[in-house]
Amino acid sequence: MPLYTYVMSYQGKTKVSQHRHSNFTGFLGVPILNAFPNLKPSFDALFRMRPQPVSNAERAWASSVEIAGEDFTLHVIETRA
Description:
The protein is mostly beta strands and 81 residues long. It has one domain. The chain has helices at 29-35, 43-47; strands spanning 3-10, 13-20, 52-53, 60-67, 70-79. Strands 2-1-5-4-3 form a 5-stranded antiparallel β-sheet, covered by helices on one side. A hairpin with a 2-residue loop joins strand 4 and strand 5. The longest helix has 7 residues, at 29-35. It is globular.
């Protein structure tokens, strides 16, 4: 299974985690809620995020969503070990 690196930012805090999954889109909740457990009430909005490919980068995706007036940003990189 691929290794994905998740870089998440919210309210001035940046967190990074890595997880192995068959794909990154079906498992977005795992790294997000591990890094920012206080966002559980906003899980529906976070789960609906659809990261789009980052231009000029291979195996990298990004997305953002506004939660309580603050932007939550997510970057996902397929990391080759």
